[in-house]
User: Which sequence fits this backbone?
């Protein structure tokens, strides 16, 4: 819980700076890759989004929290610090820029949630549901992932095409 976590202003400022800087680099790289070719970006370069997951996880770990709400509680405690306020504003602005970028990828490929959701949304998935492992490119089933005795973080990215 964030109330139990003691984080210094310097630690928070450093963690926010690192997160903002990594987000900027990842966004800039993604924008450049997408500008070269949207058709190649989605199947070959979309894995850049995994960098966002790692950056966010490292940010939470550096603050000793597990949820965004806990991180927000910490940065609210230091809201009087201009640097913290500026970095939080930068982070929120970057979130908007990422949203805009991903929406532009959707519109550039002429796909929308409405177009892609032609079927009924599933309440559950069968263990026989086939997926492609994003790291190896192998075809796997959901049951194979869930049967490994681990607690994997599954990131499901819809297929454009």
Assistant:
């Amino acid at each position: 819980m964030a109330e139990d976590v003691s984080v210094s202003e310097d630690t928070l400022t450093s963690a926010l700076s690192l997160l903002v800087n990594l987000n900027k680099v990842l966004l800039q790289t993604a924008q450049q890759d997408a500008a070269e070719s949207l058709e190649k970006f989605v199947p070959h370069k979309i894995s850049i989004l995994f960098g966002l997951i790692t950056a966010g996880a490292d940010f939470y770990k550096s603050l000793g929290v597990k949820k965004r709400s806990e991180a927000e509680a910490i940065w609210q405690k230091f809201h009087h610090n201009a640097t913290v306020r500026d970095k939080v504003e930068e982070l929120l602005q970057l979130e908007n820029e990422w949203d805009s970028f991903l929406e532009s990828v959707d519109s550039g490929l002429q796909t929308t949630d409405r177009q892609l959701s032609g079927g009924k949304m599933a309440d559950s998935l069968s263990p026989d549901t086939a997926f492609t492992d994003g790291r190896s490119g192998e075809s796997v089933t959901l049951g194979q992932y869930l049967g490994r005795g681990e607690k994997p973080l599954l990131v499901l990215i819809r297929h454009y095409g």
